Every structure is written in structure tokens, then in C-alpha cells.
Batch of 3 targets.
Target 1
Amino acid sequence: MKNQILYTLQLADNALIYGHRLSEWCGHGPVLEQDIALTNISLDFLGQARGFYQHAANLFNALPQADKQGMFLSVTLEEKINKGENIDEDDLAYLRDGWDFRNLLITEQPNGDWATTIARAFYIDIFNHLYYTRLQKSSDLQLAAIAEKSLKEVTYHKRWSSEWVIRLGDGTEESHAKMQTALNDLWPFTGEMFRMTDIEKEMASNKAGVDAAALYNDWKQQVTTIADEATMQLPDSTWMQEGGKDGRHSEHLGYILAELQFIQRAYPGMEW
Amino acid sequence: MPEQNSNKNEWPLWEVFIRSKAGLDHKHAGSLHAIDAQMAIENARDVYTRRMEGVSIWVVESKHVHASDPDSSGAMFDPASDKIYRHPTFYDLPDELTHM
Amino acid sequence: MTVRDFQQAFDEKIDREIAIEPRDWMPDNYRKTLIRQISQHAHSEIVGMLPEGNWITRAPSLRRKAVLLAKVQDEAGHGLYLYSAAETLGITRDEMYEQLHTGKAKYSSIFNYPTTSWADMGAIGWLVDGAAIMNQVALCRTSYGPYARAMVRICKEESFHQRQGYEILLQMSKGTEIQRKMVQESINRWWWPSLMMFGPSDDNSPNTEQSMRWRVKRFTNDELRQRFVDVTVEQCNILGMKLPDPALKWNEERGHYDFGEINWEEFWNVVNGNGPCNKERLDARTKAWEDGQWVRDAALAYSEKRKERSKKETKAA
């Protein structure tokens, strides 16, 4: 059960942190129509995050009190748990510290310019599409239901980011160069998507989780096809950054959480 | 529609038509900018159907819309005003006749 | 037909409340006035995304975050509907942006005030959107068809904005002492600028008379301002808060609330660029536009390349 919760939180954290990053674009997009499109995508991820957090909170609240203690390294959340109170989606999003967050490093990378945002989206969206397709068949019916709903959204995301990779790659000289740089810079963060943690292995073997490692070939093939059309070269370097799934993050996450959690931290225990 | 001032760097303007539910006509919803038809449809989805307003989208580049001249609207539309036989209530039928 | 005949036909339409449509003849000044007003309105929506966008990353719960994001996105949508309406008058969106970025076009001064606490998300929804709705509802019957239709669409979507704002304040006012303090502090800052949103008083509003005649405007600034004050006082009581105006008092004879004198010096200063955030807001918009130039160019270049290729393929076939 504990691993099921941590696995669900990993999915939730990915959606929240990435959705948060995308929401930073709102009001600053390169063209009004795309500002609106990107905000829609951000809202999709926020919705997915809420679904996963609510599920994780329900699973957690159903644990015997003794099992609840010590699951998180966050003082405020532990206090609440020790009082025997139920937790909810917001407690999980707003009261955990960085080391309890399990999102992929790629989701917390800064937006950079439009090409960087597109490259990040492209790698993530194609992965999500494959991942949610499998997760629909999860033996955890809640996860399956969230995946089924999310799949419709990520199908659209995948099309959106792929089209932009092609437009920028095959656009002007300047956009071609920027797109290539962005694809190169984010490449080392893609390996982590397919590296299975012990928790993921256990969940996959119970048929509740997805065997992410098995998705690599499909992902690589799809990414390559689009990159070819976009006249882009995918890097052949194999050295990959990792740690997010185990709570070891880049410096960026701290700043994200400082903003995200500011009010809950500054005015603890209040309803908003 | 008056001629748009030509600005070669601006994305073309498109008119968007939305079918709000199956069985209804597509209705003009508004316009937007996009580089091609595909993007126009996607933008229309994001801009004009955020509240589930539609089940189908048509887009047409604004420059391809030909409009009638409002100053000859007399010749264009008035002749129809006396052809009430196009309206079903023109026909005097027995009350017991139903489903027609 | 002579210009005089056209003018007469136009006047008759206005008098008979028949909407003016893009291809209809219209006086140059009518067109100019509309372009000015609609683009100003569009700019207000777009610049208005910034003060609230400022809190998207800091919203205190996931639900509030989603609602705020959807709301700011709506503003982008409203800006887009309005730019489209203005484009039917023969100006392009890029030209309107140009006017905004060079300071030639104005936008609602309210967005030149900073959002410094979460309660501001409530106060903006309740007071600023509330004031905007007063104006917008009246504009749903404005004489220019595309503008009126855009406003109908906008008004439908706006009603959730004011409600979500009021809900934020209501929730906070039921909370702790510090939350109530936050609400009051926010109302104190937003009340007067909200009243200023209706524009100069009628005797100082040079454009009002002509705009009323053309039915571009349906009510005067002072009429709308009074209506806003009258409905807002009661809503404020429900929150258990105070509006920061000692002169605010029910006037039995008039059947309206009396209220204190607006600080017009502040109003004109903010209009003329001296508000706390004028520079920041314009810089943010200009930066987004300039940073986006290569993206827009690339997309266009790509689409042209593709057209070329498909032409070649057709020839070859």
C-alpha cells in the first residue's frame, strides 16, 4: 500500500510541477492563440495532478495510524498526521518538502524560450501518451480511470508539441538553431523517464503500474520520426541525469515550491 | 469585410464556425489568427470551445469569404419577403392532420 | 447615393436600433471611435492578465489555482474576441499591439495597480470585474454588430469571474483574524480605483455625448458608477467589511447611495503613465511580443515552405 501511494504521488508530482511550469507562460506567450492553448494544457495537467493527489490522499487516510507516521519528511505534514487528521490533495501538494517530491527532473526544468518549452513538452507528451495508454489497464481502478481521462488530453498535447517541433525545426534558420539547442539541452533528462525504481518495478509486477522501461523503443521511434520531419538531429549521448523519482532534485524545484507553497507555509492551517 | 491592411508578418485571419451539437448548423463564432487550416482548427478548439460549446469546427481563411454588398440588400433580400409559401404556416390544412 | 444620403441612412439605422455591420457605410469618426474603444477594451483584457497572472503560481490551493488559471485564460480569450471585432473595422491586431506598445493606445488604468496579497484575487474579481461587468452588460446592445456580439460572449463568461472573486473573499472573511485583515486591506486599496474605472465624470467626458448619440455607449460614466456603488454596498455588508469612504451614505431622496469625491488627480496621473505599475505592465507586454517575434516568423516561414512544396508536388504529378 505504501508503494502504491508513493507511486501515485510520483504521477501526481509530475503533473503538478510540469503544469505549474506551463502556467508561468500565462500572459506571456508569443501569440495570443498559443497563450490560450498552453494554458489549456497547463489546466489539463493540474486536473490530472488533482486526480492523482486525491487518490493518494484516500489511500493514505485508509492506512492504520502506525503506518502513516514517518512516510513524509515534512514537519508540517507530519504534525497533521500525528494529530490523527485526514489529509487531502492540498496537504500533499502544499506541505511536503522537496525531498518528498518524486517528479521527473525534466518537469521542473525552467521554461526558457519557446523552443525549450516545446522540446520539454515534446519529450514529455510522447512519453505520457504511451504511459497513460498502458496505465488505463491498471489493476488500480482509480489510476486506470484517471489515465483514461488523461489520455484524451495528452493525445492532443502530443499533436500540439509535435507540430511545433516541426514548425520551429523546419521554420527559419534562427528557429532551426534554437529548436536543435533545446532538444540537445533537454535530452539528458529523458533517460529518467524509462529508468525503473524499485517502487515502479513492484507496481508494474502487480499490474497496477506501468513498465516504463518497455516504452523506450516506441518513444524513441516516435520522437525520431518527428525529429526527422523537423530536420532535427537527436543527440546520441547516453549519459542521463536522474534522481527526481527518488526525491533528489535540481535547484529549480526549491524555487518552484517556495512560490507554490508560499501562502500555506506563511499562514498555516487556514482555509482559502 | 473591409480589406485588411496587408502586413506580411502577421498570421492570416480565419473565420470560425462551430456546430454546438449534433443536428444543428455550424454558426459563426468569431475569428482568430493561424498559419494554416490545421492550426486554425486547433486554435479554434482552444479559443472557442473552452466550455464545451462545440462538437464540430469549420474554419475558412477570412480573405476567402465573399460577402454580399449591403447597399444592394434591397435587391438581394426583399424579393423573398413576399414568398411566404416557403414557410410552412402558409398552408391551410385540416386540424386533425398531425405529424406534418 | 451621396455621402449625405449615406449619412442619413446610417442615422436612421442608429435611431431604429438596427446594428451597423462591417460592410455598411459608416462615418469616419464612428469607425475611429470604435477602433479606439474596442482596441482599448481588448488591451485592457490582455494587460489585465498580468496582475492576476502574478498569483497563479502562488494560489493557496489546487482548486483556486485551477480557477485562477482558467480565469486569466478567459481574459486572453476576451482580448482575442475584441481584437477580432476591431479587425472588422480595417485595423490589424499587429497594428493595435503597436499602438499599445508605443503608448499611443490606452488600457484600463486599474491594471496599473499592484497585486500584493492573495485577497487581491478576490477583490479584483468582485470589484474590478464587477465594475467591468456594469460596462459590459450595457455594451451588449452597442450599435456596432461585431462589438455587441463579442460582448454577449464575454458577458456570458464573465459571470463566473465575479463569483469566484467574491467566493475568495467570503471564504477568507469566515476565516481567521489575519485573513479578515487581508480582505479589508485589499478592499481599501481597490475600492477607489474601481470607481475610477467608469472614467471621468460626465461633465469632464468629452467623448460621451457623441458616443451616446451613436449608441456606442448606452449609459453615461456617472450613471454606471452610481449603479455599481448601489449594488456593491450591500455585497460588502455580507462580507462584514467596510468600504473606505466616510461619505458613503444612503440618500432616501435620490434613492441612491451618496459617495465621496474621487481623487481625479490620481486618476489622471495613472492614465498618463504615473501609476505604480504602468512601466512594468507595458514592459511585460512588449517583452512577450518581442520574444515571440522569431516564433511567429518561424511558423509563417514553415507554412510558406509547405505551400511551396505542395505546389511543386502538384506540378510534378
Note: Chain A has a mean pLDDT of 97.
Target 2
Amino acid sequence: MGQYKMHLLVCGGTGCRASESARLVDVLGEELVKQGLEKDAQVVTTGCFGFCEKGPIVKIIPDNTFYVHVMPEDAAEIVAEHVLKGRRVARLLYQDPNSGETIEDSKHMGFYQKQLRIALRNCGFIDPECIDEYIARDGYAALGKVLTEYTPEQAIDILKKSGLRGRGGAGFPTGIKWEIAAKNAADQKYVICNADEGDPGAFMDRSISEGDPHSVLEAMAINGYCIGANKGFIYIRAEYPLAIQRLEIAIRQAREYGLLGTGILGSDFDFDVELRYGAGAFVCGEETALIHSMEGERGEPTVKPPFPAESGYLGKPSNVNNVETFANVPVIYLKGPEWFASIGNERSKGTKVFALAGKINNVGLIEVPMGITLREVIYEIGGGIKDGKKFKAVQTGGPSGGCLTEKHLDTPIDFDNLLASGSMMGSGGMIVMDEDDCMPAVAKYYLEFTVEESCGKCAPCRVGNKRLHETLEKICEGKGTEADLDYLRNLSSVIKDTSLCGLGQTSPNPVLSTLDNFWDEYVAHVTTRTCPSGRCKALLHYSIDTEKCTGCTACVRVCSTAAITGEKRQPHVIHQDKCIHCGACFDKCKFAAINVQ
Amino acid sequence: MNKIKSLDDLRRMKQAVESGIDIREKGDVPEEKIVQIRVAMATCGIAAGARDTMNALIEKVNKDNIHAVITQGGCMGYCYAEPTVEVRVPGKEPVVFGDVDTKKAAEIIDKYVKDGELVEGIIPMNFQSINQ
Ligand SMILES: Cc1cc2nc3c(=O)[nH]c(=O)nc-3n(C[C@H](O)[C@H](O)[C@H](O)COP(=O)(O)O)c2cc1C
Ligand code: FES
């Protein structure tokens, strides 16, 4: 690697790739050559910066200039102005959504200021296809340290002391999981990395696999040493082609360097990793279903126990961890368990990556210390609610989670508090909703997903969720009754109690938590048959303001059900029994004489 | 490609490659903890040899292992004294030096950055500086 005065880091994550960042890399390179600057500046393709919505992102080092929405056409100007003359291209700078100021140095962006990047430490920093850059960042040093300084028991102890808990959903203490797998004697054991990531909207595992694949490989090798396994699998969804490609390159490079293979770093420890592809069924992210799918069986969950740590892949003890969990591991060994345990709060240590989405100004991937409040995440990192609207709720934990409301804004976010609030950490999806969102409709949306993804093996989940969905549909169409609300609640608890796997055991959560937090909204739907946020079309009530109506008959002509009558030049009337709430009259009226409620 | 056969091999490997991303590591250091040097690189500066000055500074900083980040800036308005270099040592007011050729660049590092001694050629500041 040569010495360059300037590095142009171009995001090569899936988000930015989708808007031509790969071509941008080429064009920037060509421009440097054209302007005779190829020895001064280097173009580096990195992983995701987390700011995908504003992509393609280009960050210029060493001055930390953060350019957003950079197109190949902008390359010449960046090179001529910034690289050659040191003048920032103002029109490409990020603008603070609230103050409207342009921000020159990414260290001063609200989006990054409150973040603490451990799992994402190398994303947007190194070239994920270059093992040397990973090594330059102390890559594989943790593996070296563990292999030369610790026995497996000591290494597991360190992990236990760190307090790391699984980032894939349930938050099980990782050190204890490793210990159980280590204690189960067998001739063969396996390490499995869960990169199935099925939560709608979540993309932290994808970003880590794309942006820092070696950290996952290194952690898996450490895991192998600790539990006595010499074979690892990464179960990754086939819909993640870029992550697959980066992992394949990383595996090849690690083998070439002898960091995977036999006798790693002069020890007598052998370890290798292989990829296995999932077909994208949500339930295949559940560890027992995942293992069955790897075995070539149907991707259906089975009852635990036995846990994978006792009997996993091919009946052998297997340790399953999530991508983000693994990405935390090497740093813990390098900086020490005390350091890790000093971040976060009482029972949740370290950080968590969240995918911030919905009605929020800064959509993206963020990593924050456990114990941060929702208010900090939404208003400081997220830049507040879009269009100055009012915050209503945030759904965490995806389809298995629940919603948090205004009263939770100052609750520290951690595994236990989220559970106590009727939601869960899940994989880290965070969907922000504003005053225009209808909560029964939100619950219906999640149930739609669950019904689609239920594997159908057990009746409570297969049939129960379908009934929940139907009932919610009825309510949103204005045909629900008060008895339906009790029915929702009862059925939900039955499904939770009797389902076979985590999918059914959590799928009613969105229903229960919206019932708890937005009871009035449900009641409005079934009693006065109104939708307070005006989302449920069927519940909209159209009427004509007789003061404003000029009797022009324009509405009569667009009404497909002949629900509007009246004399020419006289105020008209909408007959509610015939109205299908299509909104055509509303759109047509030039005098704003149609009221919607 | 050579195999990495031991932890020592790995350490040597790291040493060999870490300079390649050093500039990125420094970009992440909070401003109050690192020496910031900015070379004016507008047309006038480049014509007066700012490019050589910048290269000399980078070389010097690397050779002497100085914790500094060197950036290039636009014209500072001292065209009569190009190349100009602005130096901000943590805890001190920024200082602008004029007519910095490669020799003077080394002198600035040796005397001003390392020992806090002032070097001839300081331009009185009447202009905006780094981070303001
Ligand atoms: C329906 C369902 C889907 C799941 N999907 C995922 C997933 O996509 N990724 C994941 O890491 N864990 C998922 N899990 C959790 C896994 O079963 C398992 O707990 C996890 O991979 C363990 O890793 P951890 O301890 O590192 O979190 C899912 C669980 C359920 C019940
Ligand atoms: S993909 Fe570029 S910032 Fe996320």
C-alpha cells in the first residue's frame, strides 16, 4: 500500500451500489489519472456508512468531508476542486435537516455524534475486499491472542465477563452458550453463523457481512477454538449477493494467508468456513429450522430441547450465533472484557445496531450504546420526525416486537426494558411512526407478514395468525365489533402460549402492544366507525359543505356509484349508503366543498 | 502470497500495512487531540510550489512519527506569501506561516510543532481558521 495524501472512500454497500456507486469508483479513478493526481489520492471502496438513504456516499480523508448523493457526473468536479485545490464542493455536502446548515466534517454530524461503533467499526472505513486493511486494523490479532495466550476455558471466561448477549433476537448470554457447547463432548462440533436476517427493514447483518466480512470469520475461528469445532458454516440468504461475494473473497484471502486452514498461526488448531445459502424464508432464521435447512430437510423448526448446543447440525453440538454477535467478539479480546462491560448498562452491555426507518429524517443504520433513550435516537441521531409531524410510536423487534410510545421516550433501550415495555430488541429494526399512521392497520401489516411466513407446521401459528389477520382486516374495514377486541386479545395469548417456535410465540406482539397502547384507536374503529388518523379508507366519511358547494355537478359526474345527488346550482348531498369512500369527488371538487373525516 | 505462520508474522504484517490506512485513523481522532496542518492549495499556492511543500510535510511527519493530520485548503488570501501553511497545535491558537518551501516545512515541524518555538514568517491572522 502506497502513501497517499488523500483517500476518497466510496461506499460500496448494497444501498449505494443500487445508485451507481460502482461506476462512481471507476469514474473517480479515471478523473484522478486524467488530472494527474493518481499518486496523490486513492479511491477506496468501503462498506456501508449507514446513511444509505443519502447515498451514494463519498467521504474524503483526512478532512472528513462527507458528500451525499454523489453521482458519476460529479466526479470531475470533486477531483478538480477538492482533490486538486482543497475546496469542498458545497452542493454535495450533507445538510442538517433541522437547521438547514451544511456540515463539512462528518464528526460534526448529529447522525454520527451519538453513535459508538463496535460491530460496525470497520464498515465505511476499510476496503472489505482487502484483507491487508483488516489486518492493519488489528485484524486476526484477537485470534492470535486467544490461540497463544488462553486455554478454551479461559477464553470463554473472558467472553462471559464481557457480558455480551446475542444480537439475533433473544439476547442469550454468548459466553454461557459457548460454554454449554464446549462442555458437550463429541467427536465433531460445528460453529454456525446466522446471517439469514429476515426481519423486514433490518439490514445490519448484511452491512457487516458486506463491510467487514473478516471480523465474522475471525470470531467464528475463535468460537471454534473455544468449543472444540474445526468447521464453521455461514447460513446466508441468497438474496444477499454482494454479502455472499464479499464473504467468499474474505474466505479465500484468509485461506491464502493461512488464517483459515490447518495449524493456524503455528498452533495445532484447524478451522475452515463454508457458506450455505438460505432461500429467504423468515422462519429459517430460527436456529432449529436453520439447521434443518442446512441438512437438506424442510426449513421447519423443532421443539427445544434439544438445543443446538447439545444436538445441532447432523446431530452434533453446534453453536449458533448471529452475525452482529460475532462481529463484537474480536474487539472484546483485544480491548478486554472490562472495557466492553463498561459500555451499556446494568444487564445489557456494549452496543446495538439498529436500522432506523419510517417517518424520520435520517434513515439509516446506527450503532448506539445500550441504555441510550429512544428520544436521543429519534431526535438527535434520527434528526426528528419528517415534515415536522408529531411522533406517535416506534416499532422495535420487527414482526415479533411491539410498539413503544411517547411514554417510553425516556426509557433506556436495553434487552430487559424493551421486554418489560411489551416489545423486544429483536434483530434491531426500528420503524418510526407519526400521527398519520393508524395502529390497527400497522398491526394488520405485521400479521400479513407472519401469515405469509408461518411454516404451517403447528396449528396455533398457522390458523391463529390467519384469524388474527382477518379480524384486524374487519376492524380496518369498519365491520368490527367490541367483541372482536376481546377476541384479538384472547386469541393472541393462546397463540403465544401454544406455538411451537419463536415465530408464533411472538407474532401476536404487535397486536397486543397496539391494543395496550392505542386502545382508544381500536375503540374508535369499532364503535363510531372512524379512523382517528384517517388512514383506513373504508372508515372515511365524505360529506358536502353546503356553504361552499356551488352545485357545479362536477362531483356527480365522477362518482362511480351515483352516490351524489342535487339540483344544478344548488348544494349537493352524498348518500352514505352508496358511498364507497373512493375519494374521487374530493379530488375533483374545485371549491374544497367536500369534507373528509 | 506468503502465509502468516505465527503471531509474530501477523504483527510484522500489520506493521507493513498499517501506514496505508494511517491517514484514515488520524481522520477519526478528535480535533483537540491532534496537530492539524493545512496547506493552501489554490492556484496561486500550487504555482508557488505548495505541492512540494505538502509532500515534504507529509514525509517529515511520517519520518518523525508526529501525530498530525495534513489537509489541503483553499486560498487563504495571502497570495504574496505562498505557499502558506496553517498549523494548529492542540491548546494553541492557529498560526499561519508564509513562504514555506520544503526547507521551511521541516523547520516548522522541528521547531514549532515539536518544541513550540516560533519560526520566522508568521503572518498575522485576520482570517478564518481551521474549524471556525
Ligand atoms: C422466527 C424466528 C426468526 C429468526 N430469525 C433470525 C435471523 O434472521 N437472524 C438471527 O441471527 N437470528 C434469528 N432468530 C434467532 C435464532 O433462533 C437464534 O436465537 C440466534 O441466531 C442466536 O444467535 P445469538 O445468540 O447470537 O443472537 C430467529 C428466531 C425466530 C424465532
Ligand atoms: S449502502 Fe452506502 S451508506 Fe449504506
Note: The longest strand of chain B covers residues 35-40.
Target 3
Amino acid sequence: MYKATVNVTLRTSILDPQGKAAHQALHNLGLKEVNKVRIGKLIEMDISADSEEKARAIATDACTRLLANEVMEDFEIIIHEN
Amino acid sequence: MSATFGVIVFPGSNCDHDAYHALAHVMNAKTKFLWHKDTDLSGIDFLLVPGGFSYGDYLRSGAIASFSPIMQSVVDFVNKGGPVLGICNGFQILLEAGLLPGAMLHNEKLRYVCKQIYLRCESTDTMFTRALQHGQVLQVPVAHGEGNYFIGEENLKRLQDNDQIIFRYCNAEGDLTPEANFNGSADHIAGICNENRNVLGMMPHPERAVEKQLGSDDGKIIFESILNELAVA
């Protein structure tokens, strides 16, 4: 069993207004050191597979077909052994 | 024989009855509801994918609905040349299903916007807009939080070159002012068609603009156009 953690974020070329608003709010709180904020989603999946490569292949398939819309989003997959 | 319209109902659709009312009661067209689990579209001449919050907008607007059982039949219907109109969430579903290019981002100012806006007809070369004049301005309501149309530059150029941009947001005079593009859409895009011109997706709600006492009946001409075309087909 593997656990896949997927981070889905808007593509860097696309303005992220939520991130921008949060960035502004952090500055208002005095955290001027924060230079950039991007907000995305985190998706966790438990995957039955007999190797890490297979688990990654399944997670990638899930991302390209449903979990991310590659017109506007990028995704990053981290696989952990469970 | 008069044409039969099918209005697809997903869990969370909420403009399905508005669409039914506009078609069946205002336009006097033969109309039936189709449940998202239906797969048999025989006898249907025109499909309308209505607005709402299918599947609660989980994951992304329209993403889950695009995998509903009926959607494979919709794809087959489109490939055979069948006409489909997606309104608001219906447009988002057609984008997610890959029947139209691009994607929807949150409105630029992150606010849900519900108001009357103006649309300019940019192409009369579709069955949905044949009865309109090029440049005609329609007053139609919008109600969405994710209507900021996004498409990569190359694909935007393809839409422009192929005359696939059907409606743009404008002001009452028909000018493309920055304020008129209230949701931040690429190139003021409010509605596009596919390359074969039988699928139209639009964020504004023409089905809610078919009776003067409800603010505007400017949307009616789109349904008149569709009915004219189906009558001669």
C-alpha cells in the first residue's frame, strides 16, 4: 500500500487572486518577509500497488484524467510507502 | 414533426426548470428532462446542459458531472453533429468534458456576480445565432463565481481565427470596455462554439431572459434561432 499526496496549483503563468489576497493579508499582519503566496489543493490517495513506480503511474493517471485540469493547473505527486 | 429538446439534470442542477420553462412554456417546444444516469438519447434533436452547481462544484466546477453516465452519449451525439447548448455550469461541464476548449477560473475579483449584463453577438454563423445581427447587443443575466474564461494564447488565436467566439461581454452601447468584462475573461469571452459549430457554451443565462416582466426578453432570439434551424433541418 502506498499513500500519494498530490498538490494541485494554478499554473505559474496564471494570476492566483486568492494567493494574492492572502499575501496582502500576511503583510498586513506584519509578515513582510513573505514574498509570494500561491493557494492550491492537497489531495491524498491510498493506492494498492506492488511498487512505488506503479503507485506513481496510477496517481499520475488520476491527476491527468480527473484531479487536475492541465489547461490551468499543475500537479506534483509525492509517494510514501504506507 | 417538431423537434424535441432534452434538458439534462445532474444532482445540483438548478437552472434545469428555468430552461424547461423557457423551452416548453415560452417557446412552446417539445421538451423533456433527461437524468444524468440516462444514456439513451434517441428521439432527442437538441440537448441543453443547464446551469447550477452539479455535484456541489466539488473538485472543479463541472469536473465530476463530465464523467456522468449521460456524458458519453452526449459526446456521441456531438460527434454525429447533434446541437448542444451549455449554459453557465453547463458550459463548465462541456469544457471539462473536452467538448469545448479552455477552462474556467474564479472571477478575477473572487466575487460571485449575479446581475444583468450585456452581450455582443460576434458571429451569426451558428444555428444558435443565425437569427441575430452581427454586433447585436443582448441584455441577459449572469450568476456565477467561476466564469473567468481562460485559454492559452495559441488556442485563443485559434478561436479568433476560426470565428469561434460567439459572444463577448460589452456595455449597453456594445463597446468592449474593461468594466464590462466583469469576471476577467480572456478577450471578453462570454460564449464560444466548437470547430464544428454545433456546440455552444455561454456563461450568461438566455433562458432567464425570455419574458419582459422578468427584466428582459433579449435571450429569446437565441431560442428562436435554434427553433428556426431545427425546423428546416
Note: The radius of gyration of chain A is 16 Å.
